Amino acid sequence: MTLCSCLQLLAQDIEVGRRFADDETSVTYTVRDVRMGKYVYMTDDSEDNLLSLTKVDGHEGEYTLEPSRQADDPPVAGAEFGWPVKYMPGKGALEFYTPQGQLIHMLEAVHGQGVACREDYRFDVSFGTDSEGYIGRIFVRGYTSQGDSTRMEYERDLVERLAEMPSAEEAAGYVNDKTDINFDGIPDLMVFIGRNCVGRVAEYYDAFVWNDEDKCFSMVLDFDEISNPIVHPDSKTITSSLRTDAVEITTWTYAWVDGYLEIIDETTSTFGDE
Predict the structure, then answer these.
(1) pLDDT, tens digit, 9 for 90 and up, residues 50-108
(2) I need a labelling partner for 97 at 20 to 30 A (CA). Which of 149, 178, 230, 245 fits?
(3) Using CA atoms, how far apart are residues 195 and 44, in angstroms rounded to an integer?
(4) Contact 40/31 with Cβ under 8 angstroms?
(5) Nearest 10 degrees: CA dihedral of 175, 179, 182, 187?
(6) Total-model pTM
(7) Residues in the chain with pLDDT < 50?
């Protein structure tokens, strides 16, 4: 089964203390100052190499490369002053583009420099309506105690539209941030995206695991295709079940292999079997 979805883990703004490494020049930049929340100034440890960015108003994570007082030429290979720059914390990168949208250079975020910890997060859930007045889209925003800024933003279509707007209590139930999905001892995030009640009832979720090295959430690929997921901490597996015939139910068992969920067992039983 394939479920159409739209995910947006939007880029957040650059903060003081972030570090980015340029593999081509072996220079590592540190964000020294963010003035008025708009002008970003970076230098290497010796302060000989400078990199300046200006935030694009109204566009989170988007900047332009600007000249600094000591830079006659752009400090990034292939780039020109005024060209677009995007900060993508989920990828751990600062990306430089041509005006035509071609990626021409990238600085890698130095691991371990994230400013937000997993325990800092809290989540807010809201819903959107379509042209017919049905509730068909879910929005989840992750906030932290550090400035109460938005660190994560996600949205997608629900599997099945709702006739009524969920109450605040019902909306809170769409987010589970207590379960350790990948069994590393750190709570992850599951977002309920709805039920498929056509012929066979099944519940579906999107899932994100916490990357403690980069201090961010990473989406679990194809988790939204796992029907009725149940997490088993003792066996470190996740099971999925679905009625596949009038009198049959199939159960799949998933395990983590090299960072991905893979099916390790599949069984089919008949209703009434022990």
Answers:
(1) 899 999 998 888 999 999 877 778 888 889 999 999 998 767 789 999 999 999 999 98
(2) 149
(3) 51
(4) yes
(5) 90
(6) 0.59
(7) 1-11, 112-114, 147, 274
Query: So what's the pLDDT on residue 1?
Result: 29
Quick one: which of 268, 272, 220 has its CA closest to 244? 268
Sign (positive or negative) of CA dihedral 154, 101, 61, 212: positive
Structure tokens given for 176: 């589970």
Q: How far is CA 36 from CA 39, 41, 257, in A?
A: 7, 12, 45
Tell me which residue of 45, 39, 85, 79 sits closest to 61, measured CA to CA: 85
Distance (Å) of CA 70 to CA 32, 83, 147: 16, 19, 32
The arrangement of strands across the sheet holding 122-129 comes to 122-129, 135-143, 150-162
Residue where the block lists tokens 């990473």 = 218
